[in-house]
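[Structure tokenization] protein backbone as discrete codes
[Encoding] learned vocabulary of local backbone shapes
[Protein] chain in single-letter code, fold in tokens
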Amino acid sequence: MPETAQYVDPRRWKALIFIALAQLMVVLDATIVNIALPSAQADLGISDGNRQWVITAYALAFGGLLLFGGRIADLWGRKQTFLVGLVGFAAASAIGGAAVNTGMLLGARALQGVFGALLAPSALSLLAVMFTDPKERAKAFGVFGAIAGGGGAVGLILGGVLTEYLDWRWTFFVNIPFAIIAAVGAIAVIREPVESHNSSRLDIPGVLLASTGLVALVYGFTRAESDGWSAGPTVGLFVAAAVLLIAFLIVESRVKAPLLPLRVVANRNRGGVYASLGLAIIGMFGLFLFLTYYMQVVKGYSPVRTGFAFLPMVAGMITGSTQIGARLMTRVPARLLMGPGFLVASVGMLLLTQIDLDTSYPALILPAFLLLGLGMGTAFMPAMSLATHGVEPRDAGVASAMVNTSQQVGGAIGTALLNTIAASATTEYAKSHAAAASSRKALELQSMVHGYTSAIWWAVGILVLAAVIAITMVKAGQQENGGAVAGSGDGAAEDAIPVMVH
């Protein structure tokens, strides 16, 4: 095979700063609006029935269009898609911050989801094609993994500060300076390798089937949370999602230029990464939700204090990602970081099953948060890198989109599943302990905590399952080669085999 030296961009580390900033903006948005929602609802007169759509409109657009966004990045070029995503996300945020009624706010949230679906996969795929040296790749993905894992908690902090000291509208306006800085920096320093573009035509049937199927799936879990798992609309959405996604896979196996080349997901290592990441996010999303309510409602923390209570978890994630995962990724197989990482996180989650009305933050919640952060940071870092490692450059965008899709769908499942479990356990506890309760308020709080701990037990099991999948399915060795590998191509071996880049 003819060989050519790989071009190494001298400005790649500066580019990382702006790519990471854009990723932080997208991840923050998943949680920053949650804390501001009660204030926005009161200000705009949003009904209780429409309140959930502030979250759902974003989730549906973002989750449904991620694969489309990933393929657009491969076709248009990742830098161009990245810039379009940034500008669009900033514009949608400005509309959301200036919203004067419910419709305007919901429309802005949906637009944020659309442009986020362009921005997120293009950001990750830019890293995949710019950082090919294994040690440099480890450091770059260490930063990216820390942001992906800890950004949600940072969003809770920032959302609390902005809502309490300024106004809920600033949870939208804050995205604008992020986007401007990232866009100006990207224009100046990002140079995408030309050979990484994909000149194939866009798979329109695949776009329609994947987008409608993912929207039906995410919306199905949203309806399950509000209407119940056996409700007609919920079941109908799940059936529709299954039919659409099966049809999508059939189409993808037959078209010449598929939206999602099956070679990307058929690889054993990437399949294991997508599955274990999705499961881990199921557990983590439930944790953010329950612990936020626990600290504000049960413990009486302010929004700002609640946000800062999550800081040790963020610190743990940064440490696990940059100091453990990044340092060991080129020395040990990914499964020996991902599996133990998820298990350490499950131990932290296990501690949180012991929370009660008078639980001490320093004695129990703090060490639990540190273990969760260290474990998830250590696991996320090699997972993010391995998900795009060995993918042909033409498929980097869609492989990156699959990472985000597994996280987004995992978040929707986690919120619905664990919320349903918590609500059911809360109701049962309240009924069985009503006669012996000293006061109605005490019974209400104790029932709430019982519901949270019941759901957290499920989250422990889910994290253990994520660890088992990572250890058994991910067979790649340490990431010694940053170039393309046969594992992403047609007819490739099950595990990645390094070859020279042409």
Residues 135 and 352 are 36 Å apart (CA to CA). The chain has a mean pLDDT of 80.
